[in-house]
From TrEMBL:
It holds the Pfam family CHU_C. The keyword Transcription regulation does not apply. This is Gliding motility-associated-like protein. Keywords: Signal. Residues 1-25 form the signal peptide. It comes from Dyadobacter jejuensis.
Length: 963
């Protein structure tokens, strides 16, 4: 009997051990959570967990996982049933769990899932044993009325491929966003779940660093050292080149969803990589170049792969372009006529694109090649299949609008034009035709991969009409077009987001655009003269001279007309006075389009001119219009450099001096009054131009005259600008204008000084705990003073702008926040930094003079928050819906993180949480209801601060639990 009991005991121990092992058997290899809105009238979303179960190490537990638990915001656990299970190979099943959930309001929500246990003996996470670590993933979903029927990206490629020692491993999630939002990728640390759906990072080591023995060198597939583990933020390729040690590894990454430059959600995928010594070489897919097409193009792309071992190959593909729930038909297809061929394999990707496929973001189509044992290979059951991936990037643009033209409406002034074009090919509901205009005719690059109007070509949107419209009247919003100007027009079609409802807010933003139409360039009749020259002939304080020239309007000769020329002081002057009245019969060759303005102070002043034109109507002189004003060229010395002289010049004129070559002249000291051209300066993109003279004569066609720049000598300069109206009706095409002459030394210029900065600090003593409740945006008000002198030295008072720099933390290097320019003078010396999540941050400001020289930084000012975290001393968790939860009074302000613990009267800890809202319901962490009585708490609160890591405050107190 005793012997029988002994055997029974042994059997019982083995049985219990087996049951215990099965209870802790790991079964989840990978997973992620996705969501999509399914109701247009309520905030109801389908929440989906896609989990990949390990059938080798935990088949029993995996099969028994009929439900999972979600935490959604502050709600949970919420039970979700399994709706599908599919065996996808490599000892893995794909399991899908779905619930429909209605959110109470718009906002940002964390959706999470946690389940025990991970595989044991994972090499790069801890603490060990890793079978005691739970599996946890989360998704951040932002609900906003402007997002419409938004859904998160979905991951179409299962993370089940094996890695091989010494060989490059690649995984791409095949993420696709049906709304056309842009995606970005970054590595993340695997986490484990905590109470209430939270997650904290595991002890994690880059899998690339796990080598035996520790610290040994690692190598890539090609033999370079060290090995690498990285993720491409744009393509999503996660590459490990190359594993060195067999075993299990866990990694995680985040797929971010961006719309119009704003992050609107993110998904965490946690996945396991199994590394084996495969005794096999991975196959390789041929590189795939990106494709850009106009909608309506049929894509037929050959996809090829090879295997140097001659193994059998299988080609497959995944992507949203195959799924009718993600893109509109027609869908793409991928045909591989000879699956399983040895050594090489090819397939054809075919997609007939259509107007429904136009979107801003490209489509990524993922291709995978997997090898298998060749025919007659020994021990095929021991063969370890390896893979390679390549992504094909496809951009689908709208077709080019066609046959843009225009007709003059015969307006008496010729200042309006009617544009027409062919009916657009893609009549997408909600799409628009955008009309662009610029002065001058311009050739754009012919590139099917460039949509819209490329930046830097000077076009401005002047209107947009419905996609079905084919006409547009351009009268410059009723102000009339400028005379004497060539106007270039182009059209671009813009589209709503894929599947968007035009009645939804935000649905028409960022859905893609077309390639720009061909240009239609319009030369309006020159019925109004335009100024062509304002050039300084003589530099003098009292006897200066400027020559002004203008064009003759298109009218029959013999018609009595009159020019009235006005002058104002300064390049932006407005105090015009009439300086000349010139009567004309508009006869060709007559000297009636030129005036020499004398008796000026051209040494100290620039001048601005305007021409009024009068024509004969009903026998009377009648004013037609005034020309655009044009200033003289103004030359100044820039920043002081001991061995150089910096020159800056500007001209505010109606023609363009950009994209031209200006000329710089320096007086020849050996021949006073003679100026030698020393440089030709190519200028682009501004009306203020610069040249630094180091004494070298860089223009030798008129002789070479080099000098040594010295602070003891004076040097005289003038510049000649070159410009054009870019209008064939205005002659001459090139317009040449001289500046005044300046004589300077290398030490003439004063420098800008550092401003003195202050910030509106908070008075925390006068703020109540509820001050910041329901406040989501904060602002800091900056003000500064600019000094006249510093240390007895004058400060340059010619300040054109202030630059404001900001750092979130006092130890960070501040970066440029904004540049403050508010002409005309005086310049603004205040700035409000809006849209902050808290007040915490540091600032300094610098001053810039008219030549772009920046001062030293001002004093640094930092600001901190007024933290508020007040806890009550009683709560009643009796389920009556009143005061059931212990949480901060009003709202916690600027709480970065929290460590909260509760103790009973004997000092034993009964509850802890890191939830910043505490949300203690009177139970232990295990869910056991605590008895009524007095409990003690300790809260270590980290407040948002200008210091990295925040400012820690420990709060101790007691609370009475009543039932």
């Amino acid at each position: 009997m005793r012997s029988f009991s002994k055997y029974l005991y042994i059997i019982l121990v083995v049985l219990l051990a087996t049951i215990s092992q099965q209870a802790q058997a790991t079964h989840i290899r990978a997973g992620e959570i996705t969501a999509r809105r399914i109701s247009a009238t309520s905030l109801t979303y389908e929440i989906r967990l896609t989990a990949y179960f390990d059938m080798q190490n935990g088949e029993g537990a995996a099969n028994a996982q009929n439900t999972v638990q979600f935490y959604i915001g502050s709600e949970g656990p919420i039970i979700a049933p399994r709706v599908n299970i599919v065996n996808i190979g490599n000892n893995t099943t794909q399991n899908t769990y779905i619930i429909n959930h209605t959110f109470p309001a718009a906002g940002k929500f964390r959706i999470s899932f946690e389940e025990d246990n991970r595989n044991n003996n994972v090499l790069n996470i801890g603490p060990p044993p890793t079978q005691n670590l739970n599996f946890y993933v989360s998704t951040t979903l932002e609900i906003n009325a402007n997002f419409g029927m938004n859904q998160t990206p979905v991951m179409l490629n299962a993370p089940i491929d094996l890695a091989a020692v010494g060989q490059r491993y690649i995984h791409n999630p095949g993420a696709f966003d049906a709304d056309g939002d842009s995606l970005a990728y970054r590595l993340f640390v695997p986490q484990r779940g905590t109470s209430n759906g939270g997650g904290i990072n595991l002890q994690y080591e880059d899998p690339n660093m796990v080598v035996v023995p520790a610290g040994s060198p690692s190598f890539t597939e090609t033999g370079a050292s060290p090995a690498t583990f990285s993720m491409d933020p744009i393509t999503g390729d996660m590459v490990w080149d190359a594993p060195m040690v067999e075993g299990y590894y866990n990694v995680a990454f985040i797929v971010e969803e961006w719309r119009d430059g704003v992050l609107i959600g993110q998904i965490v995928r946690d996945m396991q990589i199994i590394v084996e010594d495969a005794n096999n070489d991975r196959p390789a897919l041929d590189p795939l170049a990106p494709i850009c097409v106009e909608a309506g193009t049929r894509i037929n792309q050959l996809i090829s792969a090879t295997d140097k071992n001659g193994d059998r190959l299988t080609l497959s593909s995944s992507g949203g372009v195959y799924d009718a729930s993600l893109v509109s038909p027609e869908l793409a297809s991928f045909l591989v006529p000879n699956q399983g061929t040895q050594g090489t394999i090819s397939g054809n990707f075919v997609w007939q694109t259509s107007c429904a496929h136009i979107r801003q973001e490209p489509y990524d189509v993922l291709f995978k090649v997997e090898d298998g044992p060749a025919a007659g290979a020994p021990n095929p059951a021991l063969f370890r299949r390896l893979t390679d991936y390549k992504s094909l990037n496809i951009q689908v643009y709208g077709p080019k609008p066609k046959n843009l033209t225009g007709v003059d409406l015969a307006d008496p002034a010729g200042l309006a034009y009617q544009l027409t074009w062919d009916a657009y090919q893609c009549q997408t509901v909600g799409a628009k035709i955008v009309i662009y205009r610029k002065e001058g005719c311009t050739t754009l690059p012919e590139d099917v991969c460039v949509s819209g109007i490329p930046a830097g070509y000077g076009y401005t949107e002047i209107g947009r009409v419905g996609i079905g419209q084919t006409t547009f009247l351009d009268n410059n919003n009723g102000a009339g077009l400028r005379t004497g100007v060539s106007y270039s027009y182009r059209l671009v079609a813009v589209f709503p987001r894929p599947g968007a409802n035009p009645s939804e807010p935000g649905s028409l933003i960022g859905g893609g655009e077309s390639i720009a139409s061909d240009e239609f360039c319009l030369n309006l009749p020159m019925v109004m003269p335009v100024i062509t020259n304002v050039t300084v002939d003589v530099t003098d304080k009292a006897a200066g001279e400027i020559t002004v020239r203008w064009t003759r309007p298109t009218a029959s000769s013999g018609l009595p007309a009159q020019y009235q020329l006005y002058r104002a002081e300064g390049q932006n002057g407005t105090n015009y006075s009439l300086i000349a009245t010139i009567n004309t019969n508009l006869e060709a060759g007559a000297l009636d389009t030129l005036f020499v303005d004398k008796g000026l102070n051209t040494t100290d002043n620039a001048y601005r001119y305007r021409l009024d034109y009068y024509f004969t109507e009903n026998g009377l002189l009648t004013k037609l219009d005034a020309s655009e004003a044009a200033s003289s060229v103004w030359l100044q010395q820039g920043s002081a450099i001991p061995t150089n002289i910096r020159l800056n010049w500007s001209a505010i004129v109606p023609w363009s001096n950009n994209n031209q070559v200006h000329r710089v002249y320096r007086e020849d000291k050996a021949n006073p009054g003679t100026f030698n051209r020393i440089a030709e300066v190519s200028v682009t993109g501004a009306q203020s131009f610069t040249y630094i003279d180091d004494g070298t004569d860089r223009y030798t066609a008129d002789g070479s005259v080099d000098v040594a720049i010295s602070t003891n000598d004076q040097y005289c300069y003038k510049v000649e600008t070159v410009g054009s109206y870019n209008n064939s009706q205005i002659k001459p095409d090139k317009l040449y204008n001289f500046s005044q002459i300046i004589c300077v030394t290398a030490s003439d210029t004063t420098k800008p000084c550092a401003p003195v900065l202050s910030i509106d600090l908070l008075d925390c003593s006068n703020l109540s705990p509820d001050t910041y409740c329901n406040t989501t945006s904060f602002a800091n008000n900056l003000s500064w003073e600019y000094p006249q002198q510093v240390d007895g030295k004058d400060c340059d008072q010619n300040i054109a702008a202030y630059k404001i720099y900001y750092a979130r933390y006092e130890t960070d290097s501040p970066s440029l926040l904004t540049t403050v320019t508010t002409p005309p003078a005086p310049l603004a010396t205040t700035y409000t930094h809006n849209g902050l999540k808290s007040y915490a941050g540091c600032y300094y400001v610098t001053a810039l003079n008219g030549f772009g020289t920046e001062s030293a930084p001002s004093n640094i000012v930092c600001k901190d928050n007024c933290p508020a975290f007040v806890l009550p001393n009683v709560f009643t968790p009796n389920g009556d819906g009143k005061n059931d939860v212990f949480q901060p009074m009003e709202c916690p302000a600027f709480v970065q993180s929290l460590e909260f613990r509760v103790f009973n009267r004997w000092g034993a800890q009964v509850f802890d949480t890191k939830d910043v809202n505490v949300n203690w319901n009177g139970t232990t962490n295990a869910g056991k209801e605590l008895s009524a009585g007095q409990y003690y708490y300790e809260a270590k609160v980290f407040f948002e601060s200008s210091k990295v890591g925040g400012t820690a405050t420990t709060i101790k107190g007691w609370v009475q639990l009543l039932r």
